[in-house]
Specification:
Oligomer: single chain
Low-confidence stretches: 32-44
Strand content: 35-45%
Order of helices and strands: HEEEEEEEEEEEEEH
CATH superfamily of the largest domain: sav2460 like domains
CATH architecture of the largest domain: Sandwich
Distance between the termini: 98 Å
Shape: elongated
CATH class of the largest domain: Mainly Beta
Length: about 200
């Protein structure tokens, strides 16, 4: 009886195709890691910093509202949206006491909210202040500063406002950003942002 010779061609083809598929999956996985890394770079690089500060030891709750040209809005219930990030929702002196493990307390009497813009979106931006809670009869003196960080530190504006009642909304400015990240125009045309989210109760 004649002996059959085993043909390994089919096995080698299968092995080669499996190897080829593995290499393809490795390349795809590597590309995805690179995309994630680039996106991470965008999120961690701040282009603009907006600082809102009001009276020391003031119990009033002043909120920062920022809306980008795509109508995305960052505020205390939505602290990260698009290329914007609200670092801290300051509640006046309500959240200024910190309890340490040894039982002692630390007071932080400063009222300040910091918002960052971490990328360039051309178009009109809107920056507003809103008095969420007015806890004392005296007006609150609010200072707003916007700084451009790249390619070098530059103050765009410093403005002062007096806020007197709960629900008061103030348009700090509307500013237009070009594709290069430069502010090409600015105005104070009153535009409600907080009211659209909080409703008529404010």
């Amino acid at each position: 009886m004649a002996r059959r010779n085993w043909d390994s061609t089919a096995f080698l083809d299968l092995l080669f195709n499996a190897l080829l598929g593995f290499v393809f999956l490795f390349i795809v996985a590597f590309a995805l890691v690179e995309v994630d890394r680039k996106q991470g770079d965008i999120k961690t690089k701040a282009e603009f910093v907006i600082t809102v500060t009001w009276d020391l030891d003031n119990s009033d709750d002043v909120d920062t509202w920022l809306q980008d040209p795509a109508d995305a809005t960052v505020w205390f219930q939505n602290k990260e949206m698009g290329l914007m990030h609200l670092d801290r929702d300051d509640l006046g002196n309500k959240n200024d006491t910190y309890h340490l493990p040894d039982g002692t307390t630390v007071q932080y009497p400063y009222n300040q909210e910091i918002t960052t813009i971490r990328g360039i979106i051309p178009g009109m931006w809107i920056l507003n202040l809103h008095m969420y809670n007015k806890r004392r009869p005296e007006p609150a003196n609010v200072n707003v500063e916007m700084v451009k960080l790249n390619p070098s530190h530059r103050v765009i504006f410093v403005k002062d406002f007096v806020m007197e009642k709960r629900g008061q909304e103030v348009t700090v400015c509307r500013f237009e950003m070009n594709p290069g990240g430069e502010i090409v125009s600015m105005d104070e045309l009153k535009t409600s942002v907080a009211g659209d989210h909080l409703g008529s109760s404010f």
